[in-house]
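Table S5 (text form). Sequence records supplied for joint modeling of the two-component complex.
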Amino acid sequence: MTSISDRKDRHASLIALGGLLLGLKYFADAAQALAPSDLRSTLDAAALVLALTGVLLIVPVLIWKVRHLSPRERRVYFSRESFTAQVVARAQVASWNATLLALFGLDIVYRGTPTLPVEFFVQALLGVALTVFAAVFLGLNREPSEGSTHG
Amino acid sequence: MDDVTLQNRVRVFRAEHRMSQSDLAEAIGVSRKTVSTIEVGRFTPSTVIALLIARHFDVPVEDIFWLEDADP
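The corresponding structure-token record, covering 223 residues in total, follows.
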């Protein structure tokens, strides 16, 4: 039977994967402000597919968390004492740094093209925050190779 | 801080006690991936996890974890 801790690790990966898809969805939304009109419907359809898939990955995990955990299991599930919790923290830092850099970059873009809609800037920032978090998490959370041992 | 790395004998102790990574993980309440990343040195465990592992094997924590100079 899968332990609560192992299930938490799997859930974190599913949420990160969903977050990656939602981040790409926001990039597709933002790109519509820059794309020629004949490409916008394609980007809109891609954004819809990405959003639906991302939500389908994340929502069942959130429902499971609420419905299936006893108080003891909840303590284990939300414990910060794990490799995955450390990876989440590192991904959050990377996401914060990337979002801050993106803010500076978008500030320059805004000064050059003040006619861009405000939605473009919000969607681009959400895209950066989510994709960087998810990519860093999924990259660092891989299984270690069997050969590399210490002690 | 000195340039040191944390080394461990978790895999050795686990083998001596004929336990899988999942068995040890279940016994101390962490995930199997947490145990496997500790064994290969990718994850530096908290003091709590180190003490839980030592308590499980009934040995002082220094028997399982120790510091080693990174550049000998």
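Note: DSSP finds four helices and two strands in chain B.
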